[in-house]
Specification:
- This protein has helices at 4-30, 38-45, 49-55, 59-82, 88-105, 107-116, 124-147, 156-177, 181-197.
- With 202 residues, the chain is mainly α.
- The protein has two domains: 1-56, Homeodomain-like (Arc Repressor Mutant, subunit A, Orthogonal Bundle); 60-197, Orthogonal Bundle (Tetracycline Repressor, domain 2), CATH 1.10.357.10.
- Helix 5 packs antiparallel against helix 7.
Length: 202
């Protein structure tokens, strides 16, 4: 069991890494990944450059952490949604809004990750588990809707896969084309899936 000192030290480390990662995102918004330096990030974060190297061995290591924090943010929101007891259709709406909001907020990080190949550093099994986790969240919402007789009887896993693939497609399009697909298309995706899921009144 961790001592009070160890817990305090761990909390300070987490806060420091988050502050540095937020500064890195701010700098990335003003400069390209190739041109920004650890000195730029240290200046923005208001810390000595040695402090950054206490937590990250190089720029690539720092931005790998930044990229992972985007997924942590998404997964925290998914946990809240899957445990929520709101109407299933509303949970679908919230699911879409939360994912699009996070991806829109961090779109520059997602574009950078693609550019420098950060995704290649993630173990395949971790990628598979991340995908399965997202599918399970949607599947749980759909199953709740079916149980409450608000959604029609369907293959919940397959439908959840298709739901995820559409989201990934929009994220990739925004990264590839640099256009604001999230704001424009989120309502279309919501309407399409809810039209498919909801039981029609006789």
């Amino acid at each position: 069991m961790d001592t009070f000192y160890e817990k305090q030290k761990s909390l300070r480390e987490q806060m420091a890494k988050l502050a540095i990662s937020e500064a890195a995102i701010d700098v990335l918004s003003a400069k390209s990944y190739d041109s920004l330096t650890m000195n730029d990030i240290a200046e923005k974060a208001g810390v000595a450059i040695g402090t950054i190297y206490n937590y990250f061995k190089n720029k690539e290591d720092l931005f790998y952490y930044v990229y992972e924090q985007v997924h942590v943010a998404i997964e925290e929101k998914l946990d809240a949604i899957v445990n929520n007891q709101d109407d299933p259709a509303q949970r679908i709406r919230v699911f879409l809004k939360e994912v699009f909001d996070v991806c829109d907020k961090y779109k520059i990080v997602l574009a950078m990750a693609k550019q420098i190949g950060i995704k290649d550093r993630i173990p395949v099994e971790q990628k598979k588990e991340r995908v399965a986790r997202h599918i399970r969240v949607t599947q749980r919402i759909i199953e709740d809707g079916i149980a409450q007789k608000k959604f029609r009887e369907i293959d919940t896993w397959l439908t959840s896969e298709m739901f995820l693939f559409v989201l990934i497609g929009l994220i990739e399009l925004q990264t590839f084309l640099g256009e604001d697909y999230f704001a424009r298309e989120s309502k279309s995706v919501e309407k399409f899936f809810l039209n498919y899921l909801l039981l029609k009144e006789e």
